Amino acid sequence: MLHNVQKFHGFTLHDLSLFQIIIGALLGLCLTQALADDSVNENNQGNDGGNSHQNVNINNQDHIANINSYNGWKGWAAVWDYSKELFTTRLFNKRACIVAKMNKDAFPSLEKLSKFKDQKVRVKGTPPPPFLRFSITKTRVRNVAQFGRSIGNLCKGVPTYYAQQDQGEHFSLLFESQGCADAGILGLFGIYLCGNISGC
Q1: Most CB contacts within 10 A, which of 12, 92, 104, 178?
Q2: 86, 141: one domain
Q3: Residue 133, in any domain of the structure
Q4: How many domains does the chain divide into?
Q5: Strand positions, DSSP E, 111-184
Q6: What is the reported pLDDT for 15?
Q7: Which residues form a coiled coil (predicted)?
Q8: Which pTM does this prediction carry?
Q9: Residue 69: pLDDT band with limits 50, 70, 90
Q10: Are residues 69 and 25 in the same domain?
């Protein structure tokens, strides 16, 4: 029985379809690598002799950085959403989330976060990294889903409060005594969330 096989320049339709599938798979692989997350790990020896460890995962496609700080009961998790210009931190010891407007001029860019993985831990005697201080308000967020899936998932099931950036100069050494939580990236950028959270 003869089969009717069309040929184009020596290739059958079956060969051409297979070639298109291979090209599509290669393009998909390249695109996946271009949009892949960057992962930054940072270890630091604390002033009290304890160790803290942070992990930063960057989603270049959605313009989001997910940060986890593993420091026992003082640990926290955060989402920096550059597309919405918001950052959110879940403080485990407070059992609460804090949402604030991101100052994009002051926050390190996603590109800088990616490059930070090649940077060494800050050498003793060098100036501390830049920082911002935020005051936690008494205003609770009623619907965290309004901020998108990443922030909504982080803060689901816990009280969530707004915070506002403080203006002026502050001395970072006083922050802990003022009840502030350090929620920045070790050696790169400091964020201090200050104030009492009602109900916690």
Answers
A1: 92
A2: yes
A3: yes
A4: 2
A5: 131-140, 160-165, 180-182
A6: 53
A7: none
A8: 0.71
A9: very high
A10: no
